[in-house]
From TrEMBL, chain A:
<feature type="transmembrane region" description="Helical">
    <location>
        <begin position="259"/>
        <end position="286"/>
    </location>
</feature>
<feature type="transmembrane region" description="Helical">
    <location>
        <begin position="171"/>
        <end position="190"/>
    </location>
</feature>
<feature type="transmembrane region" description="Helical">
    <location>
        <begin position="298"/>
        <end position="318"/>
    </location>
</feature>
<keyword id="KW-0813">Transport</keyword>
<keyword id="KW-1133">Transmembrane helix</keyword>
<feature type="transmembrane region" description="Helical">
    <location>
        <begin position="140"/>
        <end position="159"/>
    </location>
</feature>
<dbReference type="Pfam" id="PF01032">
    <property type="entry name" value="FecCD"/>
</dbReference>
<protein>
    <submittedName>
        <fullName>Unannotated protein</fullName>
    </submittedName>
</protein>
<feature type="transmembrane region" description="Helical">
    <location>
        <begin position="18"/>
        <end position="37"/>
    </location>
</feature>
UniProtKB/TrEMBL annotation, chain B:
<keyword id="KW-0813">Transport</keyword>
<keyword id="KW-0547">Nucleotide-binding</keyword>
<feature type="domain" description="ABC transporter">
    <location>
        <begin position="4"/>
        <end position="239"/>
    </location>
</feature>
<dbReference type="InterPro" id="IPR003439">
    <property type="entry name" value="ABC_transporter-like_ATP-bd"/>
</dbReference>
<dbReference type="Pfam" id="PF00005">
    <property type="entry name" value="ABC_tran"/>
</dbReference>
<dbReference type="InterPro" id="IPR003593">
    <property type="entry name" value="AAA+_ATPase"/>
</dbReference>
<keyword id="KW-1278">Translocase</keyword>
<dbReference type="InterPro" id="IPR027417">
    <property type="entry name" value="P-loop_NTPase"/>
</dbReference>
<dbReference type="GO" id="GO:0016887">
    <property type="term" value="F:ATP hydrolysis activity"/>
</dbReference>
Length: 354, 260
């Protein structure tokens, strides 16, 4: 009996036994690589030595100047940490959205977060084109965050007002409608204020280059709440895979679970979009790549998305810094360039295995 | 053992009434088989019991109404084998059976060691060890059906609902699935409600039949009372012969009405 118990449990949890530690190691290496590589600053091998030197009880002479350390700590480190946060949040939110809507093509921007945030950012940039000198806080991330949340709220109100809805389809359609509306309003604003087009465009393409520790502090509370809530729903996301009807018969309050997951995923997504702009592809490509390798149980897909989403965006951020320095390639362009072929590669190798 | 009672139960979809005033009492440990032509309201009635579809009137489990219970508590009492179950691709047989433990796990919780040992127990009792580690995508119709029944058994609910459990199976697997349900019913004292198309099988396995037509219960009772050529002719619009075998089995045979 006891041997067969371990047999079933291993199918659910055992595959993660080496995958999770391996992903943690990958994350560690990505972070290290992220702080070592950059256009200016010290020679790469001095960075790990200096990091060790900064640890308590260890003293190594890395030969790094305080100016060079400032580049590492004030410019590269927050950028790497923010990339990790944005990547992991978009990935776990994407995976969760795919779970509650049972649609593999869904991304975290489905219900209008991106368009709402884009509209919010456009309004602020238009109104405040002279620069944000007389504001106490930077209004741009706040407006993007609120815009994203309001758009999803509108989607939910429109989508759930449809009577006799027994599926999530009306919610998805409402998301499409709200996205179109917000995009149309944004286009209208840009037509009227063509002088800010470049500024808005650069926001939309996404950027991590201006990341500071205050950006990190700004998003951390939302991202933590969102991530913990989503991880706690990993088992229920597996139950939802049998469909709304059977999940209901199995005792799941489907609409409540969907609401909590959507709120959590939206909160995290809106927060990271507010500081990083719209970085596409991450929320679809990372969870899919993980599914192709480890299977589709959300008990593994969610924690792996968290870790490998961070790795993916840290790595994707590196070529942009070096390629056409000093004018950087936007991160959104890099994720698409890296993501699409990578995805095809995994798809092909998996098919070859079958 | 648990009883199930219907008091004037109705089910509506978008203003169309699928079930009209269904009233019946199913005794603890009884197997009621609901028969009737397509669209008669059989599935709607089962879906109302699971809570998937809202209903009018009252459905009582051991005397207290279902609607007064939380969805989790209801799922602890009622297990449901749907007509076309979804077996998520990439899931193993054991993972699928484990879904049946959902009513016993809290919202944010994970399955306990007890849940896992329950699942292993069900898998070994139902002789499904071969399927436990296989992807459900690779299974045959009969294997899938056994797995869905295993999931319902893992739910440990005293009431088992089966919606067309044999419609996708060949005659051997039909018999196998129904024998399995019958054996489990006797072992666990399950109260069973099934919707079935095969009238002969319905008569063989159930204690009692309820014939539905256009949402109404038009006849009910033991097989020999309900499975009569004139009754079936009236509500199914068919021409059949009904044989009674020596052992009491009622056999329904369609007549060929075209020219011979």
């Amino acid at each position: 009996m006891s041997s067969s118990i371990t047999a079933t449990q291993s199918t659910v949890h055992g595959a993660s036994r080496w995958l999770i530690p391996a992903s943690v190691v990958a994350l560690f290496l990505a972070v290290l690589g992220g702080v070592m590589i950059g256009p200016a600053g010290p020679t790469w091998w001095r960075v790990p030595l200096e990091l060790l030197n900064r640890l308590p009880l260890i003293s190594i002479d890395s030969g790094m100047t305080s100016m060079e350390w400032a580049i590492i700590w004030q410019i590269r480190a927050p950028r790497v940490v923010l990339a990790a946060i944005v990547g992991s949040t978009l990935s776990i939110a994407g995976a969760s959205y795919q779970g509650v809507f049972r649609n593999p093509l869904v991304d975290p921007y489905l219900l209008g977060v991106a368009a709402g945030a884009g509209l919010g950012a456009t309004i602020v940039i238009t109104v405040n084109r002279s620069g944000s000198s007389d504001w106490i806080i930077d209004p741009l991330p706040l407006a993007a965050f609120l815009g994203g949340l309001l758009a999803v709220l509108a989607t939910y109100l429109v989508g759930s007002s449809v009577k006799n809805d027994r599926s999530s389809i009306s919610l998805v359609l409402a998301g499409v409608a709200v996205t179109s509306l917000a995009t149309a309003m944004q286009t209208f604003l840009l037509q009227r204020n063509s002088d800010v087009v470049r500024q808005v465009y650069s926001w939309i393409l996404g950027r991590l280059s201006t990341a500071t520790w205050s950006d990190v502090r700004l998003v951390i509370p939302y991202v933590l709440v969102s991530t913990v809530a989503l991880l706690m729903h990993r088992r229920l996301l597996d139950v939802l895979r049998v469909g709304d009807e059977e999940a209901t018969a199995l005792g799941v309050d489907v609409s409540r679970v969907r609401l909590i997951v959507v709120i959590s995923a939206t909160l995290g997504t809106a927060a990271v979009v507010a500081v990083s702009g719209l970085i596409g592809f991450v929320g679809i490509i990372v969870p899919h790549a993980i599914r192709l390798v480890v299977g589709s149980s959300y008990r593994i897909v969610l924690p792996m998305s968290l870790l490998l989403g961070a790795v993916f965006l840290i790595v994707a951020d590196i070529p942009g810094r070096i390629l056409d320095n000093p004018a950087e390639t936007p991160i959104g362009v890099v994720t698409a360039f890296l993501g699409a072929p990578f995805f095809l590669l995994i798809l092909r190798t998996r098919q070859a295995q079958r | 053992m648990t009883s199930l009672a219907f008091e004037n139960v109705s089910v509506q979809y978008d203003g169309r009434t699928a079930v009209h005033g269904f009233t019946d009492t199913i005794k603890p440990g009884e197997w009621l088989c609901i028969i009737g032509p397509n669209g008669a309201g059989k599935s709607s009635l089962l879906r109302a019991i699971t809570g998937v579809t809202p209903h009018g009137g009252r459905i009582l489990v051991d005397g207290s109404p279902l609607t007064a219970r939380s969805s989790r508590r209801r799922a602890q009492l009622i297990a449901y084998v749907p007509q076309s179950p979804v077996l998520p691709s990439g899931m193993t047989g054991a993972e699928y059976v484990l879904l049946g433990r959902n009513p016993f796990v809290t919202h944010f919780g994970q399955e306990s060691a007890l849940d896992h040992s329950m699942v292993n127990d069900v898998i070994s009792r139902l002789d499904l060890a071969d399927l436990a580690q296989r992807d459900v995508d690779t299974l045959s119709g009969g294997e899938r059906q056994r797995l869905v029944i295993a999931r319902a058994i893992a739910q440990e609910a005293p009431i088992l609902l089966l919606d067309e459990p044999t419609s996708a199976l060949d005659i051997g697997h039909q018999q196998q699935a129904l024998e399995l349900v019958d054996k489990l019913r006797r072992e666990h004292g399950l109260t069973v409600v099934s919707a079935m198309h095969d009238l002969t099988l319905a008569g063989i396995y159930s204690d009692r039949l309820a014939l539905m037509h256009a949402g109404h219960r038009v006849a009910h009772g033991p097989a020999e009372d309900v499975l009569r050529a004139e009754t079936l002719g009236e509500f199914y619009g068919v021409s059949v012969r009904v044989h009674r075998e020596d052992d009491g089995t009622i056999v329904v045979v369609p007549n060929r009405t075209s020219l011979r």
